[in-house]
């Protein structure tokens, strides 16, 4: 411990923002213990890991973004305003005045064109998010242009400008400093190698140091257009072992621990530590395959919603890991529907089945991943569903075994989870509320198709309409209604949303950990 603290102090003292006085951690910097060995790349055109996504959001801005003040609101970023022409499939962006990169270079419309087209031309892992807009290496120079200091962006697809804006708020749409990046280009890589260990953004922080498997140091940008961060710097130490993170936090060597287990967090006895919980993107569900005749009656689906002990599980073995949520779009995301009309009521479930003339018990083979928390969830469901006349025969398997059966549509029931690929309600709507061709030959990577649910045409139509609706308020209303319909009328029972607990020193305030890695922000952090 002393060796670690000495090394941590030495690292902190090497920074310009740390005074040569050591208490526990400096008042003007935040010290974080985190497992960051997943980082492969820091270039926004390549970064696709959880930890790298968090860093990109603190180093770069986008034209529009879900920012630290409210991660549910799409706000102006480097664009101060924009106007969409739905008919011409064009959006015109006016650039924010006086925004600067950390290098001191002004943020220009030309930097936006360079940044977005660079992602397409490099064609690295996250490029697919932008290519949804119909951009290719061959046409991108015509699709993104500068006109009289404004960025003119064209798109091609059967979707609205609201969908386009959400694409532009995603990680690979981060804006980089063209002059700095191209000054560090090697062998035609458009600066990719250099950007994987350096930064060239306009964000609230700049990358001061990155040592793979050791540490990340961020310096505050005093000229950030939304105001300088309260913390002069962030030190993220790579600590792989969660037990070590616990020890460092409770001894005061770090301000925050990012990878502790629920049991370790529950066991913290320090008066100096608090725990904050943040909803995460993944929703956990129970689904019934419609290839099984016994599971086709809608009364079975309705009864099932009253046989889940939502509160019982979330208050015991799932405490701190999941919270009840009954709609396919996660809470904390724009457009989420957070009402929970269902609660555990086996008597009501039995009456629903009786009124529908369904004989019980109904026997269901339930495929479950043989690890926590799925095994415990399956046992709870087995007990609660038995009270209503539905008997689960639990079939444990590895993740790959369960998912393979699920993709083959060879299961009866399955207990799994789903996370959005992209920050837009359509990402989950297409998975839970869209399936026009239910044939075995028409493989779809969606939970509706995998459970052989032939989605009613009016729900399919609603999904299409929501995607193309140009008015943001109407679009949200459509997705809300869509969530209500699927919640009440599908063989997929959404039960929980994952939660993420972060223990930290009680002095730390303002830390933002949204539902995805891109929504982790340090800009508003203070230490009082």
Automatic annotation (TrEMBL):
Q: Which residues form the signal peptide?
A: 1-23
Q: Which UniProt keywords apply?
A: Periplasm, Signal
The subcellular localization recorded is: Periplasm
Domain (Solute-binding protein family) spans 76-439
What's the superkingdom here? Answer: Bacteria
**Matching CDD domains:** PBP2_NikA_DppA_OppA_like_7
Q: Which Pfam families match?
A: SBP_bac_5
Q: Which family is this protein grouped under?
A: Belongs to the bacterial solute-binding protein 5 family.
Protein name listed in UniProt? ABC transporter substrate-binding protein
In which organism is this protein found?
Paenochrobactrum glaciei
């Amino acid at each position: 411990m002393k060796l670690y603290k000495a090394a941590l102090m030495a690292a902190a003292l090497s920074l310009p923002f740390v005074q040569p006085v050591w208490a526990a951690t400096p008042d003007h910097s935040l010290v974080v213990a985190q497992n960051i060995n997943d980082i492969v790349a820091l270039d926004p055109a390549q970064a696709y890991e959880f930890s790298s996504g968090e860093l990109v959001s603190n180093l770069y801005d986008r034209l529009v973004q879900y920012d630290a003040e409210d991660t549910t609101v799409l706000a102006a970023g480097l664009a101060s305003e924009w106007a969409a022409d739905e008919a011409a499939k064009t959006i015109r962006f006016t650039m924010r005045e006086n925004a600067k990169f950390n290098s001191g270079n002004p943020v220009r419309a030309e930097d936006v064109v360079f940044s977005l087209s660079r992602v397409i031309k490099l064609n690295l892992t996250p490029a697919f998010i932008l290519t949804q807009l119909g951009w290719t290496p061959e046409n991108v120079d015509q699709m993104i242009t500068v006109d009289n200091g404004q960025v003119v962006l064209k798109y091609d697809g059967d979707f609205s400008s609201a969908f386009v804006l959400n694409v532009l708020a995603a990680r690979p749409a981060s804006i980089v400093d063209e002059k700095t990046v191209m000054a560090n280009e090697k062998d035609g890589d458009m600066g990719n190698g250099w950007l994987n260990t350096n930064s060239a953004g306009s964000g609230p922080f700049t990358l001061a140091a990155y040592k793979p498997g050791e540490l990340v140091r961020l310096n505050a940008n005093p000229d950030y257009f939304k105001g300088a961060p309260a913390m002069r710097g962030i030190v993220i130490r790579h600590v792989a072992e969660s037990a070590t993170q616990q020890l460092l936090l409770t001894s005061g060597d770090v301000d925050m621990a990012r990878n502790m287990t629920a049991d370790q967090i529950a066991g913290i006895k320090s008066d100096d530590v608090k725990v904050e919980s943040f909803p995460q993107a993944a929703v956990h569900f129970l689904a019934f395959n419609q290839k099984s005749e016994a599971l086709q009656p809608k009364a079975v689906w309705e009864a099932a919603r009253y046989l889940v002990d939502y509160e019982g599980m979330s208050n015991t073995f799932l405490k701190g890991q999941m919270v009840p949520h009954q709609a396919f779009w996660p809470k904390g995301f724009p457009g989420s529907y957070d009402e929970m009309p269902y609660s555990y009521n086996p008597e009501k479930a039995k009456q629903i089945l009786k009124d529908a003339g369904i004989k019980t018990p109904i026997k269901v083979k339930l495929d479950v991943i043989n690890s926590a928390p799925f095994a415990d969830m399956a046992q709870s469901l087995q007990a609660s569903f038995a009270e209503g006349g539905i008997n689960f025969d639990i079939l444990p398997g590895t993740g790959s075994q369960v998912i393979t059966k699920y993709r083959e549509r060879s299961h009866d029931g399955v207990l799994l989870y789903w996370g959005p690929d992209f920050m837009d309600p359509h990402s989950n709507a297409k998975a839970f509320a869209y399936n026009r061709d239910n044939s075995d030959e028409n493989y779809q990577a969606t939970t509706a198709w995998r459970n052989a649910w032939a989605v009613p045409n009016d729900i399919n139509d609603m999904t299409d309409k929501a995607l193309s609706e140009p008015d943001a308020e109407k679009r949200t209303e459509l997705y809300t209604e869509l969530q209500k319909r699927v919640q009440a009328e599908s063989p997929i029972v959404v039960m929980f949303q994952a939660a993420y607990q972060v223990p930290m020193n009680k002095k730390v305030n303002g830390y933002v950990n949204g539902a995805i890695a891109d929504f982790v922000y340090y800009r508003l952090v203070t230490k009082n």
